[in-house]
Design goal:
- The complex is a heterodimer of chains A (235) and B (287).
- With 235 residues, chain A is α/β, with parallel strands linked by helices.
- Chain A has a single domain, classed as Rossmann fold.
- Chain A is 33% helix and 26% strand.
- In chain A, strand 9 and strand 10 form a beta hairpin.
- The longest helix of chain A has 15 residues.
- Chain B has twelve helices and two strands; from the N terminus they run αααααββααααααα.
- The longest helix of chain B is centred in the first third of the chain and has 30 residues.
- Chain B is globular and about 60 Å long.
- The chains are: A alpha/beta (235), B mainly alpha (287).
- At the A-B interface, helix 2 and helix 3 of A face helix 7 and helix 8 of B.
- The structure holds adenosine-5'-triphosphate and magnesium ion.
- The site of magnesium ion has 4 residues of chain A, from helix 1.
């Protein structure tokens, strides 16, 4: 097991008085693809928002490359090499496709990803580079969201429900493209409702239930009945 | 002929109103902040112009070289030091704080410069005029209008063609996700306010050249700017120019009918347009 690139220790997260995460312990190894599953409202998105600095957390709760990032702002976290493809895509509506991608490069981090590389991965985006991002189909918008995250040349990339609301054929296309994205040493966390999809692309899996880790295991060996129990909380 | 004259003078006056409005429109567009102190900041710029011209003896137009960056710095500091703290889901705190700022500015100006009306003087520029077909127009109003067009064009270009403009639009669309892209929204807001107050500096100096001003002049400028923004349609800078022109023309035509009607007829034009097209004449469109 290589040094973890991301380590969460007793992570708590709150929305006002409401506590959404309770003492979550989790880690992602360098170059590893991790899956996180869990029912609606389990706290998956909250976890992603905590990691990326959109929700601030207590000191020592999140370590990225050995550095405490729990108290950093989102833009500071982005500069350390962490990027997210957010739930629901959330493109910038008044920016064109190309501008959405360019703004992903705002951190100025060097690496293999550039406008050209993203256009090579998703050629349709090159064709549609000048149109407003809102004019694209759902699948194409998801490509922009992925490309935008890649443009910052992250070391760890988070995908929050990339298949949400997309047609099965499009979901397949996007999952087919994933190995080419995560291939070169990048680590990834994939949040997914579709459990078999999540298990097929990852090496390890965590299940969240009501803000707590209810299961941790290797994706190819974890028994299905354990997952059902951890997912739905049925004893 | 007199009506044509009123129309042309009103159009040129509209350039000044568009300059009052542009900064207001910009900061509302980027950060949903309604700045009640905007008019007082215009007057502050006029006073800074007065200080620079009287202390160093610069021509007021040249004084912009100092006043514009000074106001931009004030804008950045004001945003980072005070206004960022008021921004959130609730629209009320920024309204209250900028209202307070307005009161503070007026009283501060009163303290420093007294209540006596002042004017920026540029003897040649103020009186020079040009024949324009059958009518005669002042060089200053023409210059003001030309500057307004240039400023609006420059803002439009910044918004749609530069990385800074892209950042402004991204933060305006979705603050959280913009943050994930490495944009510090507090800094971006600071830059937006700096740009807005740079425009305000130009507006303040042109105002001071055109009419006399005193520490209480800000409220009226705020209203004119606000009306021009709404007439033109929020989030459209060329619309803001059109709004300024409509307001200016309404005022000069009103004044033509009866001098006492100048300001009132501007307000009436505003209300009529608001009633017919609440979204303004040219609501948000890009490019
Ligand atoms: N902005 C918010 N304010 C208050 N509570 C919130 C907020 N966002 C989420 N919650 C609550 O936090 C809990 C976890 O929500 P979260 O969005 O993290 O779940 P999730 O696992 O991502 O669910 P989904 O599968 O529906 O995306 C839920 O109970 C939710 O109601
Ligand atoms: Mg979610």
């Amino acid at each position: 097991m290589p040094e973890p690139i991301l380590q969460m220790t007793g992570l708590n997260a709150h929305y006002g008085d409401f506590q959404a995460l309770y003492g979550v312990d989790m880690h992602v190894g360098g170059g590893e693809v991790l899956a996180i599953i869990g029912a609606n409202g389990a706290g998956k998105t909250t976890l992603m928002r905590s990691i990326t600095g959109l929700i601030t957390n207590g000191p020592g709760q999140i370590q990225f490359k050995g550095r405490d990032i729990g108290g950093l702002r989102g833009d500071q976290v982005a500069e350390t090499g962490l990027a997210m493809v957010p739930e629901g895509r959330q493109l910038f509506a008044s920016l064109t496709v190309e501008e959405n991608l360019l703004i992903g490069a705002q951190t100025g981090r060097k690496g293999p990803w550039s406008l050209g590389a993203v256009f090579k991965l998703f050629p349709i985006l090159k064709e549609r580079r000048a149109v407003p991002s809102t004019a694209l189909s759902g699948g194409q918008q998801q490509m922009v969201a992925i490309g935008r995250a890649l443009m910052s040349n992250p070391e760890l990339i988070l995908f929050d429900e990339i298949s949400l609301g997309l047609a099965p054929i499009i979901i397949k296309d996007i999952y087919d493209a994933l190995p080419g994205i995560i291939g070169d040493g990048m680590s990834a966390i994939i949040v997914e409702q579709d459990i078999s999809k999540a298990l097929s692309v990852s090496s390890r899996v965590y299940c969240l239930q009501e803000g707590r880790v209810s299961l941790e295991g290797a994706s190819d060996t974890v028994p299905r009945e354990d997952i059902s129990r951890a997912y739905f909380g049925i004893e | 002929m007199e009506w044509l004259n009123a129309l042309v003078q009103g159009t040129l006056l509209g350039g000044l109103y568009a300059l009052f409005a542009a900064g207001l429109s910009l900061i509302f567009g980027v950060m949903r902040l309604v700045n009640i102190a905007h008019g007082d900041l215009i007057v502050l710029a006029a006073y800074l112009g007065l200080t620079v011209t009287s202390a160093i003896g610069l021509h007021p137009v040249v004084a912009m070289v100092l006043v514009v960056p000074a106001m931009a710095m004030i804008g950045y500091a004001l945003q980072r030091g005070l206004l960022n703290q008021t921004l959130g889901d609730d629209l009320l705190p920024p309204l209250l704080v900028t209202f307070g700022l307005s009161v503070i500015l007026q009283n501060g100006l009163l303290e420093v410069y007294s209540a006596d009306p002042q004017k920026l003087s540029a003897p040649v520029l103020e009186t020079a005029s040009l024949p324009l077909g059958p009518i005669t127009v002042g060089v200053l109003p023409v210059l003001t209008f030309a500057i307004a067009v240039a400023v609006i064009w420059g803002l439009q270009w910044t918004f749609y063609k530069t990385a800074l403009g892209r950042a402004f639009r991204a933060v305006s669309d979705n603050q959280d996700i913009a943050q994930l892209m490495g944009l510090n929204k507090r800094h971006i807001f600071g830059l937006a306010m700096a740009l807005a107050l740079a425009v305000t500096a130009v507006a303040g100096i042109l105002l001071g050249l055109r009419t006399s001003f005193d520490p209480a002049s800000g409220g009226g400028r705020l209203i004119f700017g606000f009306e021009a923004v709404i007439i033109g349609g929020l989030g459209n800078l060329w619309g803001t120019l059109a709004g300024g022109v409509i307001l200016g023309v309404a005022q000069t035509i009103g004044a033509k009918i009866d001098p006492g009607w100048q300001v009132l007829s501007g307000h009436i034009a505003f209300l009529v347009i608001l009633a017919i097209r609440p979204q303004g004449l040219f609501p948000r469109m890009s490019g």
